[in-house]
Design a protein that fits this description.
The complex is a heterodimer of chains A (373) and B (348).
Chain A: E1 2-3, E2 23-34, E3 37-49, E4 54-58, H1 65-73, E5 80-81, E6 87-90, E7 93-94, H2 100-106, E8 111-114, H3 118-121, H4 128-140, H5 144-157, H6 163-166, H7 176-188, E9 194-198, H8 206-223, E10 226-231, H9 234-238, E11 243-248, E12 251-257, H10 258-263, H11 268-276, H12 316-320, E13 326-327, E14 334-335, H13 344-356
Helix pairs in contact in A: 4-5, 5-7, 7-8
Chain B: E1 15-29, E2 32-45, E3 49-53, H1 60-67, E4 75-80, E5 83-84, H2 90-97, E6 100-103, H3 117-128, H4 134-147, H5 152-155, H6 165-177, E7 183-187, H7 195-212, E8 215-220, H8 223-229, E9 232-237, E10 240-246, H9 247-252, H10 257-265, H11 305-309, E11 315-318, E12 321-323, H12 338-347
Parallel strand pairs in B: 3-8, 3-9, 6-7, 7-8
Antiparallel strand pairs in B: 1-2, 1-4, 4-5, 9-10, 10-12, 11-12
Helix pairs in contact in B: 3-4, 3-6, 4-6, 6-7
The chains are: A alpha/beta (373), B alpha/beta (348).
Chain lengths: 373, 348
């Protein structure tokens, strides 16, 4: 287990086309100055997305996953501050240095985003046709007729029946699933190289969620597009990503290729999150392993590890020192923990806590997850 | 069902709540109306949790509210320990309704942010037991605070806005239990919460059920959550019930094509599992003009002419397992004869 010296250095595999990843975020901090103090919404995050690959970002509310994706899109409110140490490299160009006018060239043909709530991301008083053709005419220099034809093709490709008729309709005339298809069609209209999907299916029903996730996966493959899928649901990312980053309190606590993460998770938070999900395979009335307490206030972060107050492995060291990212045998597997799950150090820490009946943070072990032995 | 019928109602001594042919319609003017709930029947035995599951717009929340008589159902009966609530009004309804309590999806907006927690929880007592000893009432409130995992000393005098979503839901649960209700109706109680907090609240509801002998109607869209908490499950689609049975039977051997499709769509947190397929095409039809016959037929992979002409009635297909479908799904995965299925279900 070795700490990674420079943040981000371990996550620089070349893309299939060579020349480094499409998107690389290095040591990003996004801060908000609020009356309560500085809120560290994203606090030292490094990620990389290769061409044609999908990265899943998983976290609970307040973990910073949405602020991270908006930082990449350059869609933050004015009061957000991005300290100088940190980069958002898109094809090796730092997006943070771009003016709004330059950024407008990127939104659409380079980067596009799909948001959680399709009703608020569509303009309710503008017909669907105009909302799609706007980007086509602006970026691809298409005439009215050509843009119309293209819009119909786009709507058809995202599975909207009778697309010609839909062009003349308003968003409120469509169902939630259809609206999300329209926002996907808009996002895809200029063939972006990277699609950021922020909780794209959270507002939708399960049967529709499955349709939309399939649609995103199919479009990504056909267009050889890269995708960042942001979600709170481990079930959504399990089957549809190449790599997953788990966020907690503004930091990435674990990052690994998807299969590795599910097979040998190292961070106690990832483990606890997995165990707290009710599983459809389990018999009813299976007792869930809840995580006690709640995430820290991002304006008053603890000194040590941010998960230590809720962690079953917590030791005195965890309360004093925030762990850096470590790797072990698999170089692409990083985790922010001194006593990782499934390692001798982690097992020993948990047994020590079990013997003492409480963790170093004073949590009663009987309220925590059972030892993973 | 995507049909009607009452074959699944049980004739037992210990039925606490019995809902029969419940109909809720909202007029739209011009003679048109929204058929929100159309002839839904179910019953709840003492100490049982019934999960009511379905997608948005299927009428599950309206069903829960119609049981509370807000709004009054258009038709059908709601009997609580034999007394029909639909026939009651005024003081008699208010008094009976103390035995039915409800918790809602958004815990923060269901509490007055400026009131003290102790006053919120104790309000039912001050209305219904005005003569009770103040110290006695306070003891009851503190006991409930403690039971839901909040420290009465530190949190009793704080105000609702000082609590997180999970803690607010704990306060709502305490408030709902203060009058010792017979039935607790939970309308999406965990869908606004993060998974780690969701697990805390689900465990808490199970503890409360064991401690206070609660009977629950648990309404939710999340299939895994519903399975976890329920003894029996009823699946709704477009204002009708499709399938009813014990939670384990319905999930292990879904017989209605809709239940089957719903279960197949759930993404599983396991990369080895087959990616969920999307067997259902299209959207739910409008409840203003629902399809004839079986309401699911427009999206059903097995639909035939009969489904349009004739509404399927609820019928038994296994021990405590009922569906409303003319052409049920064959035993999925492990094919077993009905006999084997019966023994498997009765032994579980």
């Amino acid at each position: 287990m070795t700490p990674i010296a420079a943040a981000g250095s371990a996550s620089r595999p070349g893309g299939p086309e060579g020349g480094g990843p499409l998107l690389e975020v290095r040591d990003l901090h996004t801060l908000f100055d609020t009356p309560r103090g500085i809120v560290r919404a994203v606090d030292g995050v490094s990620i990389a997305v290769d061409r044609g690959r999908t990265l899943g970002i998983v976290g609970e509310s307040g973990s910073g996953k949405t602020v991270l994706s908006r930082s990449v899109m350059n869609l933050l409110p004015k009061r957000a501050a991005l300290p100088a140490d940190g980069e958002i490299l898109f094809e090796e160009r730092d997006l943070r240095a771009l003016t709004n006018k330059q950024m407008r060239e990127y939104w659409g043909p380079q980067l596009a985003m799909v948001f959680q709530d399709p009703m608020t991301s569509l303009n309710p008083v503008v017909k669907i046709g105009r909302q799609i053709t706007e980007a086509l005419r602006e970026h691809l220099d298409l005439g009215r007729k050509e843009a119309q034809v293209q819009a119909v093709d786009l709507l058809r490709s995202v599975g909207i029946p009778a697309p010609e008729r839909r062009l003349a309709e308003y968003p409120h005339q469509l169902s939630g699933g259809m609206r999300q298809r329209v926002t996907i069609a808009i996002a895809l209209s200029c063939s972006p190289k990277l699609l950021l999907a922020d909780e794209p299916t959270t507002a939708l029903d399960v049967t529709v969620q499955a349709q939309i996730l399939d649609l995103l996966a199919r479009q990504q493959q056909e267009r050889h597009m890269s995708m960042v899928l942001v979600t709170h649901d481990l079930g959504v990312v399990a089957n549809r990503t190449d790599e997953i980053a788990v966020m907690y309190a503004g930091q990435i606590v674990e990052k690994a290729p998807t299969r590795t993460l599910f097979r040998s998770m190292r961070h106690p938070y990832t483990e606890a999150l997995m165990r707290s999900i009710p599983r459809i395979e389990n018999p009813s009335h299976t007792r869930l392993d809840a995580i006690p307490g709640r995430p820290p206030d991002l304006a008053k972060l603890p000194v040590g590890c941010r998960f230590a107050p809720r962690c079953a492995n917590a030791q005195p060291r965890c309360l004093e020192e925030n762990p850096p990212l470590f790797t072990d045998d698999e170089p692409r597997h990083e985790f922010r923990c001194f006593f990782p799950v499934g390692t001798p150090a982690g097992d020993e820490a948990r047994q020590r806590n079990a013997r003492a009946g409480r963790t170093a943070a004073g949590i009663d072990m009987s309220t925590l997850t059972k030892a993973s032995a | 069902m995507a049909g009607s019928g009452t074959a699944h109602l049980r004739d037992r001594e210990d039925i606490v709540l019995s809902v029969e042919d419940l109909v809720v319609e909202f007029p739209l003017g011009g003679g048109r109306k929204v058929h929100a709930v159309s002839s839904v029947s179910f019953d709840l035995a003492e100490g049982e949790t019934l999960g009511l599951v379905g997608e948005s717009g299927c009428g599950k929340s309206t069903t829960g509210r119609a049981v509370m008589q807000v709004p009054r159902p258009t038709g059908g009966s709601v009997r609580l320990r034999g007394a029909d609530l639909t026939g009651l009004s005024g003081e008699a309804l208010r008094r009976t309704r103390t035995q039915l309590q409800m918790i809602f999806q958004d815990p923060i907006s269901s509490l007055n942010p400026r009131r003290k927690v102790r006053d919120i929880i104790g309000e039912g007592l001050s209305i219904w037991r005005p003569d009770a000893d103040a110290a006695e009432s306070r003891k009851r409130v503190d006991e409930l605070l403690d039971a839901v995992g909040l420290d009465p000393e530190t949190s009793g005098d704080r105000r609702a806005h000082q609590f997180s979503g999970g803690q607010c839901q704990r306060i709502c649960i305490a408030r709902s239990l203060v009058l010792d209700p017979d039935v607790l109706i939970c309308d999406e109680p965990v869908s606004a919460l993060d998974v780690s907090v969701q697990a805390q609240i689900l465990n808490l509801l199970e503890d409360m059920k064991a401690r206070y002998g609660l009977t629950m109607l648990f309404i939710a869209h999340d299939l895994a959550v519903v399975k976890n908490i329920s003894d029996r499950v009823a699946v709704m689609y477009l204002g009708k019930i499709c399938e009813v049975g014990t939670a384990d039977a319905v999930y292990a051997r879904p017989a209605h094509p809709y239940t089957n499709a719903l279960l197949a769509s759930v993404p599983r947190p396991d990369p080895e599992a087959r990616a969920p397929s999307a067997p259902l095409e299209g959207d739910v039809p409008s409840p203003i003009d629902p399809p004839s016959g079986c309401r699911f037929r427009t999206r059903c992979p097995k639909a035939q002419e009969r489904c349009a002409a004739e509404e399927p009635l609820v019928r038994e297909i296994g021990p405590d397992h009922f569906i409303a479908c003319h052409f049920p799904v064959d035993a999925p995965e492990a094919p077993a004869s009905l006999d084997e299925r019966s023994t498997a279900a009765s032994s579980s």
